[in-house]
């Protein structure tokens, strides 16, 4: 919603803690014409993985977020895989008097 893109969600049938977000249009791709020679392993859109992971940590969920497919590397869609690892403990800070 923040980027103006609505992803399609695909769930994995084998595990209950994994799903995939597919973006038909990735707004970050507009800023990159093509990957530099010798730098094919760069993933400019990894920023999205960090944003999703950070947002999940804010609600106390640990997750592994990775790119499965990337339009910059010739794939038809941008696909992000999300695997939930565990629920994080809510640490309460004691106030000093």
Automatic annotation (TrEMBL):
Its main location: endoplasmic reticulum. SUPFAM superfamilies: Ligand-binding domain in the NO signalling and Golgi transport. Gene3D superfamilies: Trafficking protein particle complex subunit 3 (3.30.1380.20). GO terms for cellular component: endoplasmic reticulum; Golgi apparatus; TRAPP complex. Keywords: Endoplasmic reticulum, ER-Golgi transport, Golgi apparatus, Transport. InterPro entries: Bet3, NO_sig/Golgi_transp_ligand-bd, TRAPP_component. PANTHER family: TRAFFICKING PROTEIN PARTICLE COMPLEX SUBUNIT 3 (PTHR13048). Belongs to the TRAPP small subunits family. BET3 subfamily. This is Trafficking protein particle complex subunit 3L. It comes from Terrapene triunguis (Three-toed box turtle). The lineage of its organism: Eukaryota, Metazoa, Chordata, Craniata, Vertebrata.
